[in-house]
Design goal:
Number of helices: 5
Strand order of the largest sheet: 1-2-3
Oligomer: single chain
Distance between the termini: 43 Å
CATH topology: Sufe protein. Chain: A
Order of helices and strands: HEEEHHHH
Length: about 120
């Protein structure tokens, strides 16, 4: 099994949404102490509750960066309920191939940060 799929490599080399956003309404950060990956997700939420802007930053491996790029590119325009329904399996499937079990936590770290940010959005 290859460590990186073409999808992961593409998004890791040219990540979408890899930037801090101005005046985020909510943000959350997750850290993986096993490998040192750190990802921060920031969101601006519209008056109707939909995500109008998403960004991420941090120091992370190619799998985490690729996963964050794919995930955050897909959520703009979605509401909190739709984002909350995104499953671990959907994120893993979006990466274009199997992920070694030791690297699954890397792939899901951006989703954990997104879930934390969305929990914070309940007060928006």
């Amino acid at each position: 099994m290859a460590l990186y799929t073409e999808t992961i490599l593409h998004h890791a080399r040219s990540p979408k949404k890899f930037a801090r956003i101005a005046d985020p309404d909510v943000q959350a950060e997750e850290f993986n102490p096993l490998c040192g990956d750190r990802v921060r997700v920031e969101l601006r939420i519209g008056e109707n509750g939909d995500v109008i802007e998403a960004g991420f930053s941090g120091e992370m491996c190619a799998i985490a960066k690729g996963s964050a790029s794919i995930l955050l590119e897909s959520i703009e325009g979605m509401n909190r309920a739709a984002i909350g329904a995104i499953s671990d399996a959907q994120v893993l499937e979006s990466l274009g191939g199997p992920i070694e079990s030791a690297r699954v936590k890397c792939a899901l770290l951006p989703l954990a940060a997104l879930r934390g940010a969305i929990r914070g959005a309940s007060s928006c």
